[in-house]
Write a structure and sequence with these properties.
Strand order of the largest sheet: 9-8-10-14-17-18
Distance between the termini: 75 Å
Structural class: alpha/beta
Number of domains: 3
CATH topology of the largest domain: Serine Threonine Protein Phosphatase 5, Tetratricopeptide repeat
Radius of gyration: 30 Å
Organism: Lusitaniella coriacea LEGE 07157
InterPro entries: CHAT_dom, TPR-like_helical_dom_sf, TPR_rpt
Keywords: Coiled coil, TPR repeat
Protein name: CHAT domain-containing protein
Number of helices: 33
Amino acid sequence: MIQNRVKQALIGIFTLGLGTIPVAATTVPRRTLSVPSPTPTENEPQQPADALFQKGIEQAQQNQLEAAIASWEEALKLYQQQKNPQGEALTLEQLGLAYQRMGESDRALEFYQQQRAIARTLEDRHGEARGWGNIASTNRALGNYSAAIDANEKALNLLVELEDRRGEGQVLGNLGNVYIALGEYDKAAELHEKSLAIAQEMGNQQGAVLSLNSLGAIAASAGDYEKATDFYQKSLEAAKTINFIAAEADALNNLGSIHHALKEYDRAIDYYQQTLEIAETMGSLRLKSAALASLGLAHASKQDYSQALDYQAQSWQMAKEMGDRPLESIALGNWGHTLWKAGELEEAEEKLNRAIEIRESLRANLEDAQKVSIFDTQIRAYYLLQQILVAQNRPEAALEIAERGRSRAFVELLAKRISSESAAESIFAKPPNIEKIRQIAKDHQATLVEYSIIPDDRFIAQGKLVGSDLKLFIWVVQPNGTITFRNVDLNTFQFSTEQEGENDSPEEGIQIKKQVRDLRRVLFTPRRARTRKKLQELHQLLIQPITDLLPTNPEDRVIFIPQGSLFVLPFPALQDENKTYLIDKHTLLTSPSIQVLDLTHQQKAKLAQTKEEISGDNALIVGNPTMPDKPPGLLPLKGAEEEAIEIAKMLDAQALIGEAATETAVVEKMPDAKLIHLATHGLLNEIVDLGLGAPGAIALAPTPGVTDGLLTTEEILNLQLNAELVVLSACNTGQGDITGDGVIGLSRALVTAGVPSVLVSLWAVPDAPTAELMTEFYRQLAQNPDKAQALRQAMLKTKEEFPPPSNWAAFTPIGEP
C-alpha cells in the first residue's frame, strides 16, 4: 500500500559547476522533492513488495547500492504483478536515483522516464514534477543542457500550479546551476537569488545552503574572491549547523579554491584534504573526484608534478565511471595542463584533444546564444593546445586548432543556411584541415593573416576569465598555399601608456585590449602625434613581424582574421615608421575565421547563379529615418539623408527618407534587394538595456502599434536575404559583444541571413567625410565590382581631404571582396 510520506529521496540531483579552482567552484547536488514511500499502517501487515522496497532504502542508506538495486528490482516485479502503479512508480524512481549515484546516467534516465509517464497517467502532479526534476538532473550529467533546461522548466510549471513554494525554490536553484554550466552567470545569479529568497521564506535551511554555495561559485567565476568567500563561509557555517555533510564538503573545496587562486597553495591543500576525507566517508564519487582534481592542480602549482598527475588520473577515472561528461572534460583539461607543465607534450596533446571533443559535443544541441556563452568557458583548452603544438614545432596543426577554436556557433549557423543537412551533420560545419585552409587562400587569391592572442594560464577553467596576454601567434597563408608562422613574445614589448594629466611612460608587457582601447580614445583627440605613436606601436606589434610575407602589389588582397579586441582595430590606419598607412600598401578585408570566409564564398556563388545585377530597381537605400522614441536621444542625421539621396541618384534608385523609412517598409524590401545601404543610427548595448536581446539594432521609423522602429540582430537572423552587399553607414555598426565566437552584433546577423559582403563602421564618423567616402565607394564600385578595392580607393581619396584617421579608417569590409 502507498500511504505515508517519508523523508526524502536517496540523493540530490544537481552537480553543476563541478570544476576545481583555479578551475571552477563545486556545487552540491540538490535533493529531490519529498517522495512517498510504501509503508504499512499500524494495523496493516507489510506486503512483500513494500518490505523489499523498504529494505532497498536501508541498503542504500548504508551505501550498499547493488544490494539496494536487487531489492528494488524484486519489489518492482511484485508491484507490476499486483498492478500497483503507485508502487511501481516509486520503485522506478529509486532505481533511477541509485543508478545515477553509481554514475550510470543512461540507465537512470530510462527509469526516470518510466516513472514520470506513470505519474502522468495517475495524474500525480507532484510525482510528475519529481520525474521532470530527475530527468533534468540526468541530462545535466550527460551534458544535455537544453534537455535539462526544458525538463526543469516543466517541473517548475507544475510546482507553481501546485503552489509548492519549497519545490519551486529548489527547481529554480537547479535551473540556475544549468545556467552556471552554460556560462550565463547573470541569469544563474537571478535564479539563485530567487531560490535563496524562497528557501529563507519557507525555512528550507538546506535550500539556503545550496543557493549560498552556488552564488559563491558565480562570484568566483567573475574573479570576485572576496564576495565568493563571503558566500562560501556562510554556506559552510549553515551546513555545519544542520549537519549537511555534502554541502559542507563543497564549501570547504570552494574555500580552498579561493586560496588556490590567491596562490596560497598550502592552505588550499588543507581545505582540499578536508573535502577528500568527507567524500571518502560519504562514499561520494562526485565529491572525491572534485577534491582529487583540486589537489592535483594545487600540487601542479607547487611543481610537484608526479603527485599532481596521480591525483588527476584518479579524478578522471571517477568522472568517467560516473558518466558525468562535463566533469570528465574538466578532469581531462586539468590532466593535460599538468602534463604540459611537466613537459609531457604528446600526452598533454592527447588529453586536451579528448577534453575538446567532449566539450564540442556538449555544445551540439544548444541554441546559438548558449553555444556562444558556453564556448567562452571552454576556450582556454584551445589556447593551451595551440601552445603545445607550437612547442612541438607543429605550427600548421596549431593553426587547425586556432580555426577549430573560433566562430564555431557562427559557422554552424551559416552551414545550416547553406546546407539542407542539420548544422551538426553538415560537412560545411566541420573545422577545416590544413589542406582546406590552403585551398581557401587559393580560391580567394588572397593572403590570409590569422591572429591568436595566447593568455597565460593563471585561470585554467574559471568561468570565462583568461589571464594576461602572453604571446601573439600569427599565421600567414599565401595565395599559393604557403603557410608561415610567427611567434611574438608580448613580454618583450614596451608600449607607451598614458595616465590622465601625465606624460607617456613605458609599459612592460602589453594587454592588446588596452592598447586598442587607448588607440580608439586618442583617435578622436586633436593630439595627432599621440595618435600616430599609437598607430605605429600597433603596426610594430601586428604587421612588422609579417611585413616580408605581405604582397607588394597594393591591389592584392590581404584578409585579416582577428581575435578579441582586434576585431575593432582600424587596420587600414596602422602606420609604419615612415608614416605610411597600411591602406596605402594593401587592399584589406576581415573575416571572423578562415572557415567563415569559405562559407561567405559559397554564399556569393549561390547568389551569382541568379545572374541578377545590382540596379536601381533592386537597390534599397535608406537615410535618416524618423527616429524611434526608445532609446531616447537618437538625433536626426541630416548628413545621412544627403548621403542616401546622393547614392540613390548614382544608382538611379529611390531612397527611403524620414517617415517613409519605416521598419515595416524596409524589412518588406530587404529579401528582394541585391544592394542594401542603411545610413542611420546603429545601436549596441542600448538594445540589451531595453530587453530586446543580443547587442545590435538598426534605427528605423516606427509604426505605432505595429513596430518599434528597431531592427534587431535577432530579427535580422530570421530574414532570408539575397543581397550581395549590405552597407551599414552608421554609428558603431561593426561593434558588439566580443566573444570567442567573434563579434556578436549586426555584421554577424547579416552574414548569417545570407549576405556574403558587409561593410560596417567601427565608430561614428562625421557627416562630411562619410558622405565623401561613400559616394566615392559607389563610384569606384560602378567601375570595379571588387568591394575591397573600391573601399581602398574611397579611403585614399577621403584621406586626402580629411587626413585624420578618425575621418576615413572606420569602415571595414567583412566577408567576400
